[in-house]
Amino acid sequence: MKILYVDDEPDNLVGFKASLRLDYQILTAVTIPQAISCLDNHPEIKVVFCDQRMPVKTGVEFFEEIRVSHPLPVRILLTAYTDVEAIIDAINRGNIFRYVKKPWTEADIISAIDEANKFYMANSMLSIKNDELQKAYNELDKFAYSISHDIRGPLSGILGAINVAREIEDVEEMKEMLFLMGKSLNKLDTYILSMHDYYSLQRGELKIKELDFNKIIDDLKPMYTVLSKTNKVAFNVSVEQEEIFRSDDVPVKLILNNLLSNAFKYQDKKNKNKSVDVIVKVQNSLATIYVKDTGIGILGTHIGEIFNLFYRANFQEVGSGFGLYNVKSAILKLNGQIEVTSVLHQGTTFRVTIPSV
Amino acid sequence: MNIEYSFIVIDDNELDCFVIQKVIQHTYKNVSIDTFHNGLGAIEMIRNHSGNDRPPAIIFLDLQMPVMDGPEFIEEFENLPSEIQNNYVIVVLSILSAARYPVDVFRISHHPSVNCVIEKPLIKEKLIKLLVQLKPGD
Fold first, then answer.
1. I want to staple A325 with a disulfide (CB 3.0 to 4.6 A). Which of A309, B75, B117, B128 is the partner?
2. Is residue B68 within 8 angstroms of chain A, CB to CB?
3. Which CATH code for domain B6-133?
């Protein structure tokens, strides 16, 4: 734990350092400018002690200044004088945490440091929690909106259909409507499953085991082979794995599934040579996965946003805006990285790297 | 029942389009209905059919759509000459009604060209009520 002590009398600094150096890392400064540069160079300083009687500026004035420029360290004033005005100033202007009377005893200082440390920790936890809370609120807002659109949307369609069904007599017409109702329900079902993925990625724990990418890809293959045939998209797979790779298969499969389904979904319908390539290489405890398509591509201005929750770069196809967000969450969870390169009307390549655990 | 209106349905959801068409057809006989999956096709048709050979049309407009969404359609529509605008009544079909107060729906409902917002799904009773309400003004 780093502590800064500011005093213009070198003897005091030496004494302070001598009695506390075993328990703390003590930095010292004899002038205010020196103290400020010390704070700049050591942002991890948790507690600042300063003598009130300093040349040029008082301790209170120094605290008043760093309160704005370096708000994190906890401020403690040391003074031999106990006039009420100075104490009031120290509290109101310097916003100090403690006030220690000179000559100090080691016990006074240690107790002040302990309390200051608790205060510092509580403050930094609070700011981390605040950031997390803000993020959660933002996601909640997006959720509320998405729930109305993606859940109530299909449901109101179905309700309307049931209502109108009472008056439909033609069987073919009814069949057509049932087909469309089925499509709506499938969309809702996909949405709910993605929401489940979202939740388990945010909250669930990793279950590490040995992964065989040949097997993982073989399991996924049948589903995409069907898509490949119906949509006339060539599907090429290559896996190179000769070493043991340890990770959690659930997020890995989620990443592959989302990238592959996007690769098939966003193909350019006019293109004659459509293809999707998956290449997996495991080397030096690192799995590198490429998912490459010859699809419509992503506009340069959209590429930075595609991993955001509920962001959709393209509305031509059905989607919930969960997919790539979930991919990103899964990759973060596995300590991996993702890169994307895309050329409009030519295709997109995702490169994912995941370290073995 | 016969009415003096034709209809334009603008909604990207196939089921919603189908249901709206059926509700109209089962409520009123011999009406013309044009459907579009986004605002662009509709605004082009409105621009090109500015003659008075058509009965006034009620436009059922969805909000979230690809290519040209509801708000963009309204903006384009309000740039048309007023003699064209007067031939149409815009009714927004929204997943959540203005009463439930999402900001975007609330904003839309206050556009001069928007007659009202109806919460989905459109059912026969809502359609009849809408036409009764439109009657005295014309």
1. A309
2. no
3. 3.40.50.2300
